[in-house]
From TrEMBL:
Keyword Nucleotide-binding carried by entry: no
Record keywords, A-Z: Pyridoxal phosphate
UniProt GO MF annotations: pyridoxal phosphate binding; transaminase activity
Record CDD domains: AHBA_syn
Name of the protein described by the UniProt record: dTDP-4-amino-4,6-dideoxygalactose transaminase
Homology family: Belongs to the DegT/DnrJ/EryC1 family.
N6-(pyridoxal phosphate)lysine modification, residue list: K204
Organism: Thermasporomyces composti
Length: 416
């Protein structure tokens, strides 16, 4: 058996030792600084953010980091996005346009606030929202656009902001995968829309286990988000009162202390991810039917996405993912099992009891279609074309070279 034989067919795998991973300490930047931060909070006896100073300090530091006026902390990225939708304050049945290729955390908050998610299609190479598709989905009921910078690749937010302004809509940026992502015009992702939302979940560039942050320059939006995360309780007054329907999404002081220790490490994490990605993109350039992520220097590589042209590359993204996994490479075909609109919560309207609310008339303008075929580009990416390589700041040049070797090996076998 030659060393060129695929591991899938019984050949020797390219790689037999594990890669650094976000699932344990091998691929995280957690260390002495975070331990000291936790010790400090425990010693203070102040674990709640309405009493201690860590969460307020994190908010100040994160706002300064992004050169914006306000940051509001919460319990998760999903919670941060919920804060943003709550700040939009849609009428029941109002519509928010978003992307079908994202974590459910982008879409569930729209439903939680009784608004209707409307899905626009995506760009065939980046998987990010397509501006013309968004434009075509705007109706008299549209209130906001929720855009995702997928895998850390900058979405066309300058154009989306212009479109939003033209129609009096809010633009919310989901930056859960996009810390320090830079747009082609030099602005940071999260600062172009009205609100930017970030996640501190285990798998993101920096983590506190879970946690969320919203940024905005708008004081009124910041205040509404802060109230929504704290039972509508205006703690800047003496009154124990509750101004509107809200939840408790308060970050704990333990989370905030860890996040404060993580923040100074963020720039290094992104720089190291970029250096590794640049090396891989160079190595993949000669392979027909394999398109590395387009990058003008602003991508932050939450993952490393590759577009596979099955006709030229000799297999689908799923064929590649299976063969690469056998070679010892952490790869995933399609990212999602299905577009978000095909998950039961939407496709079967599993919302409040058996009502289907708000995906019914009233309050909706019409019962939204979440049928197969509404976003054909997104569907073909998930079914055939989107290959995702797990990425990490701790990858060495040798790690990256193993990934390149394995992809080249699989490509050679598939196109032989
Ligand atoms: C992770 C993620 C979320 C949700 O964040 P959680 O902290 O897991 O709630 C939302 N949107 C995107 C694009 C994500 O990657």
């Amino acid at each position: 058996m030659s060393s060129g034989d695929l591991a899938l067919d019984g050949g020797a795998p390219v790689r037999t030792t594990p890669f650094p991973t976000v699932n344990n300490a091998s691929g995280r930047t957690l260390g002495a600084e975070e331990l000291e931060a936790l010790r400090r909070v425990i010693a203070s006896g102040q674990l709640n953010s309405t009493i201690g100073g860590e969460t307020r300090a994190l908010e100040r530091e994160f706002a300064d980091y992004y050169s914006v006026a306000h940051a509001v902390a919460s319990t998760s990225g999903t919670a941060a996005l919920h804060l943003a939708v709550a700040a939009v304050n849609p009428e029941p049945g109002d519509e928010i346009i978003t992307t079908p290729i994202t974590d459910a955390g982008t879409v569930l908050p729209i439903l939680m606030q009784n608004a209707v998610p409307v899905f626009a299609d995506v760009d065939p190479v980046t998987g990010n929202l397509d501006v013309e598709s968004v434009r075509a989905r705007i109706t008299s009921r549209t209130r906001a656009i929720m855009v995702v910078h997928l895998f850390g690749s900058p979405a066309p937010v300058a154009s989306l902001r212009a479109l939003a302004d033209e129609h009096g809509l809010m633009l919310i940026e989901d930056c859960a995968q996009a810390y320090l992502t830079r747009c082609p015009d030099g602005r940071l992702a999260g600062t172009v829309g009205h609100i930017g939302c970030f996640s501190l979940q285990q798998s993101k560039h920096i983590t506190a286990g879970d946690g969320g942050l919203c940024i905005t320059d708008d004081a009124a939006l910041a205040r509404r988000m802060r109230l929504f995360a704290d039972k509508g309780w205006p703690r800047d007054t003496d009154e124990r009162t509750h101004l509107f329907l809200s939840v408790n999404y308060r970050m704990t002081e333990l989370q905030a202390a860890v996040a404060r220790a993580q923040l100074p490490k963020l720039a290094g994490v992104v720089a190291d991810r970029r250096a590794g990605a640049e090396r891989l993109s160079k190595a993949l350039a000669p392979l027909a039917g394999i398109t590395p992520p387009p990058d003008h220097g602003g991508m932050s590589y939450w993952q490393y996405p590759i577009i596979i042209d099955p006709d030229q590359a000799g297999g689908t993204c799923h064929d590649y993912a299976k063969a690469l996994a056998a070679e010892g490479i952490p790869a995933n075909g399609g990212y999602l099992t299905r577009p978000v609109y095909r998950t039961p919560v939407l496709a079967e309207r599993q919302t409040y009891g058996t009502s289907g609310y708000p995906l019914c008339v009233p309050p909706a303008r019409e019962v939204p279609s979440y049928d197969e075929g509404i976003c054909p580009v997104a569907e073909s990416l998930i079914a055939k074309r989107l290959l995702v390589i797990a990425w990490n700041e701790r990858y060495t040049a040798a790690d990256v070279d193993d990934i390149a070797t394995a992809i080249t090996k699989v490509h050679r076998a598939f196109t032989a």
